[in-house]
């Protein structure tokens, strides 16, 4: 068992899931299917994988200002990641969580870790606590 | 640095109504971004009324139920339906009703029924130096770069929250020191004939966005002002291929009387010297269906067509019947003028399908055709059409698009292809 304390970007529910470490930045609008959480951008290296229920490590987001709408739709429909890990605050994507919280919906916690720390979680089952503690086993 | 709210802002945020919800969303975003305070905004342009799923409709209705109203002028970007009834949107129930409810909710919040991605050509032009909260990437980049008003790239829902609270986080492009160019994009080596062609600015925009990413650049070596529709096409293409919120063009845009001023008197981090080969490669990248021997449709109007662009379309069609339809996307501000002189009916009779309030990449309008080929003169359509419509794309000038639509097959003339 190994753990690190991360800065909380948007508070939310603790979550646990398989680590999905994206190898390229993604545009949620046009890049993630809001109905299923599957990565739909044919140019993205992880195209076809589902982000629902994973602990999602994001190396950055690009493109449309509707990323917030797609993430909120995933939260509302029950297809959101179990937790999000970003290397910097993303004003557009995380807005989806801020607004979903205002709506009273249960949202996953979003935390900040340096990008070079993402690799140590590869292939692990990761837990992110509501207090920002990121831990893995196995 | 932590966020400090005024007593009045704190009082509003502490309430239980729609205004409180909006103020809390603005304040939480400001805290996330490290903004020290909120600033008043003079207007907003709202991209959040496009249906992506039921959650967005429920949010807008919660604001309506909470008695919220916009505090500043707020125009609306495109929705998922053509409320003018010009084109048929193939959105099925129950999504169709939810999209309709969403558009109704934004109307009830006091937003103007503009339904266009070119609000700056529909009478919404904020003053130079004023702070505003705009969404929709092409509108944001035009507002900052061509009008010289100040906005960040506001995401869905923060745009309406800013409009209701009349406030925005003070960070990013609202601060003068963050509007300085750090890169030079030098186009002086490009042939004057290319620079005068219609495809120059959308192709250069696509290249520019890819080269600068999220940085601010100043374009140098431009001999004359290319005009507003060219700047619109440049910004839209740049904001599709990169995270561009602001560009400068030396001698053309208002914060760049010359390159040195745009750079703030500081040496640039890098100078990108644009060559004809780089331009050819950028132009080729806009097409995903090179070598196609047929086209199924033409789409123009991303951003929405101006009246001047309809004039050009009419001149090029010259009363000929089209073999494949041209989808011409525009706003109701232009539609009213076209209807007044009977021009819309004449265009429709020749095979132009006018699309108002929305466009062909944000909602299903094009026939569901696997392996379809779409031709366009828009760098932004070229970027988003493959992912959002399933059509492969051929990029050409407006003249190429018209000749191809008349012939029913791809024709390229005079652009070196």
UniProtKB/TrEMBL annotation, chain A:
GO molecular function: lyase activity
Phosphomevalonate dehydratase small subunit-like domain residues: 26-100
Domain of life: Bacteria
Keywords: Lyase
Stored InterPro entries: PMDh-S-like_dom (IPR002840)
Coiled-coil ranges (or none): none
Entry annotated with the keyword Oxidoreductase: no
Full protein name: Putative aconitase with swiveling domain
Species this chain originates from: Aminobacter aganoensis
Source organism phylogeny: Bacteria, Pseudomonadati, Pseudomonadota, Alphaproteobacteria, Hyphomicrobiales
UniProtKB/TrEMBL annotation, chain B:
Keyword Iron: yes
One function term, GO molecular function aspect: lyase activity
Positions of the Phosphomevalonate dehydratase large subunit-like domain: 3-403
Any single Pfam family the record assigns to this protein: AcnX
Alphabetically ordered keywords of this record: Iron, Lyase
Position of the signal peptide: none
InterPro entries xref list: PMDh-L-like_dom
Top-level lineage group: Bacteria
Keyword DNA damage belongs to the record: no
Annotated PANTHER family: DUF521 DOMAIN PROTEIN (AFU_ORTHOLOGUE AFUA_6G00490) (PTHR36577)
Protein name (database record): Phosphomevalonate dehydratase large subunit-like domain-containing protein
Organism: Aminobacter aganoensis
